[in-house]
Amino acid sequence: MHIVMEIDVTKTRQLPGRQRVRKALLFISLLLFPVTLYYFSPALILQGAAEGVVNASLIVFGLMFVGSLFVGRLWCGWACPAGALQEFASPINNRRVSRRINWIKWAIWIPWAGLIVALAVSAGGYHTVDPLYQLEGGVTMTIPLDGEGPPWFMIYYTIIALFAGLAIIVGRRAGCHTICWMAPFMIIGRRIRNLVKWPSLRLAAEPTACNNCMTCTRNCPMSLDVNGMVQSANMENDECILCGNCVDGCPKSAIGFSFSSGR
Fold first, then answer.
1. Is 11 helix (H, G, I), strand (E, B) or coil?
2. pTM, full prediction
3. Cα 151-156-162 angle, rounded to 5 deg
4. What total of structural domains would you count in the chain?
5. Do the domain assignments include residue 8?
6. What is the phi-psi region of residue 163: left when phi exceeds 0, alpha when psi lies from -120 to 50, beta otherwise?
7. Is 137 exposed, middle or buried (0-12, 13-18, 19+ CB in 10 A)?
8. What is the pLDDT along the chain (263 residues), one digit of tens a residue?
């Protein structure tokens, strides 16, 4: 009896070069997360605001906003450790998520941002810049000499559990759609960019080149209807992270990166 085995070459084919670089950067970012966690802390921004202190987390979030004015949500697709964790969990659950859950992150972010403003005002405004506020040596997981300080290990594993759990239970990058406290900064910056229409990194499409194979939609880690975006010749979407999966996977090269005003 002969047994014939068929190998799905689409599953064994090596990633395109750009995607290998992107995945490598995400992997490095995830490895460094125990060290860099402090720099993404929403809780320390609140505590710093209550004392009128600008800490590194606030500076980083400000830089994300400024960066989004020119490169959109590139950070999310290429360097975010939480994004990396979710993408690497996709083999467990690669289900597309509904855009109807996108409101959740705003329901979290708006009160949080409002509280930052209220605390800063009650403190008489920001009057001190201390990038290493409550952090010894600039490394998150170090143990303070006095034995006091935030419980970083507990915070780290809680964040890992939240983002990985959502990705495993709900689907593709579910945490980006629901609990991410960084995404709204970049979405707002992106909307300002679109309003002003200055040159910036974005996707561009040629609808006449598209053969409706739907590869772009199937491959989108943010569960976007990329094919529909191509057909309308409007590639702008708040949830697009400029990962380039649609660009590198399109057999007809109907999608590409562009640094333009989008007019």
1. helix
2. 0.89
3. 125
4. 1
5. no
6. alpha
7. exposed
8. 444 444 344 444 688 999 999 999 999 999 999 989 989 999 999 999 999 999 999 999 999 999 999 999 999 999 999 999 999 999 999 999 999 999 999 999 999 999 999 999 999 999 999 998 887 666 666 655 455 666 788 889 999 999 999 999 999 999 999 999 999 999 999 999 999 999 999 999 999 999 999 999 999 999 999 999 999 999 999 999 999 999 999 999 999 999 998 75
The CA distance from 31 to 94, in Å, is 22
Domain, as residue range, for 105: 16-197
Domain-embedded: residue 177: yes
In a domain, 225, yes or no: no
Q: Is 157 part of any domain?
A: yes
Rg (CA), the chain: 20
Look at phi and psi of residue 249 and say left if phi exceeds 0, alpha if psi is from -120 to 50, else beta.
alpha
